[in-house]
Amino acid sequence: MSEALTGPELVALVRRVFQPRPEDKALAILVDLPDLHVPDDAGWIERRAIAQAWADTLNAHRHELGLETRLVVYPNVHTNNGDLPERAWIHAGGPLPSADSLDPAASVSFAELYAGHPILIALTKFSATAPLKLAAKTHPIRAATMPGFRSDMIPALRLDYTEVNRRVNLLKELLDRAEGAAFRFGTPDGPCELFVDLRHRTGHASGGLLPAPGAAGNLPSGEAYIVPYEGERDGDPSRTAGVMPVQFGAEVVRYRLEGNKALEVVSEGPKSREEAAHLAKEPAYGNLAELGLGVLAAFGVKPIGEILLDEKLGLHLAFGRSDHFGGQVGPKDFSGPEAVIHIDRVYVPETQPDVKVLSVDLAMADGSAAPLMRDGAYTVGF
């Protein structure tokens, strides 16, 4: 690991993010395990090592923190934001087991885990954000999800999250008052325009603070986000429509959206054909599930190729599952558990250099347009 948090820094992080209460007695650090279906990789190995190091360090400071920390493992679920398995294993120490060597008799249900561990940190390969958000609605937990976390993200854990939180809440308030968002993108093949319907929705603030039970969110954090209206009200279809460009390598794929769904790909190329086939096979993949507004680029944070951090830098749009954010599309809408996905596309120069965010304007309830972005930068006075 190129960088590590010290014991005092870890204690301060847990206190700042979760603000533990006297009745909180234990914290669980979750890791998912590789299997024959999804083999191990270097980043996953490092992430599990970080989880073990954090568990050991926090336990060394348990009297100072006031919490016991337990490392908890479970078999990976093969996809981002898929439902968690029914059982988990509290690790007794030593080398971590493999997924196929877990003893069912030694497991606990996730409901039992939540009952005894009101604070959770998920240092996983596959995002557990969606299932933990849903679990937080029925269990008094608060969970920080860190899918794909790497040691080079550690500087982002040291930011001034009071200021991050202030900016995120300002953006959330704008999303709350908006009824739509009009995008104009520049691409090598010409401009693309997209309108996103934000009626009947309110925004969410993910500013890196989770002090109250019933909440789950990413860490590092720093975004306001909202689920576009998906047309679930009788006689009131979604007005989301237009063309959304996404750069994959040297190719810019252009999706045509109508009724908040990507119905077809209107560009040409290998990736365009691949994405068109994916839409045909999994229509729920094309659901526009999120409009997100990250703020961390203003703090000097650069993308590193991991969505956990990169999406917090600036504008992002996501396809797929939305029920964990208050939307309508969930696992039932996909062909199977392993097909469930929520995938963010991040619009900053380093991640999509050939797609320019020329403008974003919010359509307000009174009919006015409020400028939000020009040439990739916020026009909001922070």
Overview of this protein structure:
By secondary structure, the chain is of the alpha+beta class. The mean pLDDT is 96. It folds into two domains: 7-156, no CATH class; 159-378, no CATH class. The longest helix has 19 residues, at 42-60. An eight-stranded antiparallel beta sheet has the order 14-13-12-8-7-18-19-20. Strands 4-3-2-1-5-6-10 form a seven-stranded mixed beta sheet. A five-stranded antiparallel beta sheet has the order 9-11-15-16-17. The protein contains eight helices and 20 strands.
* Net shape: globular
For the largest sheet, list the strands in their spatial order. Answer: 14-13-12-8-7-18-19-20
Helical percentage: 10-25%
Quick one: how many beta strands? 20
Describe the secondary-structure layout:
Layout: H1 7-18, E1 26-33, H2 42-60, H3 62-65, E2 68-75, E3 87-90, E4 108-109, H4 110-116, E5 119-122, H5 129-135, E6 142-145, H6 161-177, E7 178-186, E8 192-197, E9 204-206, E10 215-218, E11 223-226, E12 241-248, E13 251-258, E14 261-265, H7 270-281, E15 288-294, H8 307-310, E16 315-320, E17 342-346, E18 356-364, E19 369-374, E20 377-378
Parallel strand pairs: 1-2, 1-5, 5-6, 6-10
Antiparallel strand pairs: 2-3, 3-4, 7-8, 7-18, 8-12, 9-11, 11-15, 12-13, 13-14, 15-16, 16-17, 18-19, 19-20
